[in-house]
Amino acid sequence: MWWTLLSVIAGVLILVLRFSTRRRRRNEPPLDEGWIPWLGHAIEFGKDAAKFLARMKEKHGDIFTVRVAGLRVTVLLDPHSFDSVLNDRDSFDFTRIRSQVIQKVFSLQPTNIEPTLERKWMEQHFQGCSLPKLSSSMNTHLQTLLLHCHNGSAPSEWKQEGLFDLCYSLLFRAGYLTFFERTDNAAVAYQEFRKFDNLLTKLARGSLRREERRTVSHSQERLWELLSPCGLRGGSESSTWQQSYCDFLQQEGINADMQKKALLLQLWTTQCNAGPAAFWLLGFLLTHPEAMEAVKSEIRGLSTRRDTSFQQPQNNPLEAHSTPVFDSILSETLRLTAAVMIRREVVQDKILDMANGKRYHLRRGDRVCLFPFLSPQMDPQIHQEPQTFKYDRFLNDDMTVKDEFYKDGKKLKYCSMPWGAGKNSCVGKEFAISTIKQFVFLALTHLDLEPCDPEAKLPPVNPSRYGFGMLQPDGDLQVRYRLKRT
Ligand code: HEM
């Protein structure tokens, strides 16, 4: 009896192994299946994708295929060859992967909305004529929140807090008030959003524990409630970003239930990156005195100019002037801490031409993944001491912005890719840059801000967040702050 059972189990296992493993064909990228049937490298990938992919790059070079949870993912790490994927929309599709993730994380059913139509709507509402209005509203909210961040204690008293919490909460609330214009519940929305965001990577990978699943569901419900279109005020205020988005969805035939779920997706898309980016930028400044001095000196230079942009709160004085030091520090921050993964599905068999002349056959149904964090961003052939923060890395000797970098003697088209690329790159790039710079400017000019421990270092990154945009810290940097005496 036992022998029969054991032989059946062994037979099934052999069949699973036989049919779930694949052999590399001629002209295909090196194949690394891992030793766990079906799962392949999923566990290592989910734990620390950067470490895992760096190990694979060491072993196989700039292109290889790995098995991850039943899928074959071809990873391309040569920035000179990125365009072969980004420019071929017939062979590489993004829409299906996007809707799968959205369904899993935001419970949003695939809709019939034409992706290009939605993208166009986004561009209209985040860029061009809409941008100055959004930036001005964001600046006003940021100033108000920053000047009142003492929560009851006297503004001249030192207050202690984690820098990550401070940055994320201020930028989230200002963004929420700008886009969603609900003045009464920004703080509650932030609390729920953080709970949701903390578990988002596990939710996307399907690795939540039961208790965590309950927390996520509860936060989702609460956020859907807070964002519900029914709660919107109409009349004179119906021209808010949120109202326009709901009108757009309504016109496309999306029902109220899906509208509130789409609003949570937009809340996450618009709020999940700016806070963490501001944290890293301020954190690098607070732990690198020479960078802090350089940026403060640039700001001092601006404020001595006789113009009115400093007097009007809705203005962002940084926009009226060139700020190469500030820009270099932002680029360097994003180089070190933005870790986007650009994913595509291979929808027809494809011969991929690499920049070095090699050609590889990719199979239909596989995935392709670009991970610019490893190269160009952290590539030692491109950036000397890539792990080190150097505030002037993106500055030329004549103090102009440096945007020429080389690999193998060839100029790079993409020297850093924090905003993604191609069809699904960030629609809010200009808004995000203006917001982060304005926030840091306000923090430096309105607050006395310092690490509680002068010797403190920045916390390490949370390795499970590689591939989900801006990285987040594992821990926090404790800071103390008070309003500057004028
Ligand atoms: C440091 C800040 C930010 C970074 C690094 C960043 C980065 C990105 C990246 C990499 C993507 C592509 C995501 C993907 O592959 O699926 C993206 C998409 C997007 N971002 Fe940003 N983002 C930032 C801030 C913002 C802000 C403040 C807004 C809104 C005002 C915004 C609006 C969007 C939108 C709407 C999309 C979706 C585009 C589409 O689906 O076609 N982003 N962002």
Automatic annotation (TrEMBL):
- Record key words, sorted: Endoplasmic reticulum, Fatty acid biosynthesis, Fatty acid metabolism, Heme, Iron, Isomerase, Lipid biosynthesis, Lipid metabolism, Lyase, Membrane, Metal-binding, Prostaglandin biosynthesis, Prostaglandin metabolism, Transmembrane, Transmembrane helix
Cofactor(s) annotated in UniProt: heme
Q: Quick one: signal sequence residues?
A: none
Q: Tell me how this protein sits in the membrane.
A: Single-pass membrane protein
Q: Name one GO molecular function term.
A: prostaglandin-I synthase activity
**Pfam families registered for this protein in UniProt:** p450
**Where does the record place it?**
Endoplasmic reticulum membrane
Can you name this protein? Prostacyclin synthase
Gene3D superfamilies membership:
Cytochrome P450
Positions bound to heme: C426
What's the chief localization of this chain? endoplasmic reticulum
Q: Which organism is it from?
A: Astatotilapia calliptera
Q: What does this protein do?
A: Catalyzes the biosynthesis and metabolism of eicosanoids. Catalyzes the isomerization of prostaglandin H2 to prostacyclin (= prostaglandin I2), a potent mediator of vasodilation and inhibitor of platelet aggregation. Additionally, displays dehydratase activity, toward hydroperoxyeicosatetraenoates (HPETEs), especially toward (15S)-hydroperoxy-(5Z,8Z,11Z,13E)-eicosatetraenoate (15(S)-HPETE).
Instruction: Summarize where substrate binds, as residue positions.
Output: K104, N273, R367
Q: Which reaction does it catalyse?
A: a hydroperoxyeicosatetraenoate = an oxoeicosatetraenoate + H2O; prostaglandin H2 = prostaglandin I2
- Its Enzyme Commission number(s) read 4.2.1.152, 5.3.99.4
Q: Name one GO cellular component term.
A: endoplasmic reticulum membrane
Domain of life, per the record? Eukaryota
What phylogenetic lineage does the species belong to? Eukaryota, Metazoa, Chordata, Craniata, Vertebrata
